[in-house]
Amino acid sequence: MGYVERNTWSQLIASAAGTAVYLALVLPQLGSTPVGEIAWQWPMVWTIAGAIVVSIVISILWGIGAGMRDPDEEHRADQRDREIEHLGDRVGQAFLVIGGLAALILAMVQAEWFWIGNAVFFGFFLSAFIGGIARIVVYRRGMP
Asked: In whole angstroms, how large is the CA radius of gyration of the chain?
């Protein structure tokens, strides 16, 4: 497994874990707290920051392990890696647009900030996660 593919896996793992933590912190409040009073801002900030840190740590540790196992492995992106990255970005971009449009519509109908913030958050999550899945599929099965 190459350097870029390992980083993609690291990002997938960290973003899924971060989103799961965020949902575990916020979803229980939906049943007992009015939406306008839910403490969602700081849990979102900390899970985003935590996911970034976890992704970096996983990538570094995985890279060290891979380097020890196969010191001759290439650690730079080649043309195929760049094409796969571009394809994943295109796939993920659609979900970013959907999240942005959802947030815009929610703002137009003057929805609670909770829903607007979460629409943007999940647009970013889906963009990163589904774009990452697309990259992994292409790494495993080849370019379409």
From this structure: 18
Whole-prediction pTM:
0.86
- Per-position DSSP letters for 30-76, written without gaps between them: HHHS-GGG---HHHHHHHHHHHHHHHHHHHHHHHHHHHHH-TTS--S
Number of H helices, E strands in the chain: 4, 0
Q: Which region holds residue 110: left if phi is over 0, alpha if psi is between -120 and 50, else beta?
A: left
Query: Two tokens at 115?
Result: 């829903």
Boundaries of every domain in the chain = 3-141
pLDDT tens string 53-97 = 999 999 999 888 887 887 766 666 778 888 889 999 999 999 999
Structure tokens at 89: 């970005």
| DSSP 8-state code for residue 1 | -
Q: Which residues lie closer than 8 Å to 76 by C-beta, 6 or more apart? A: 3
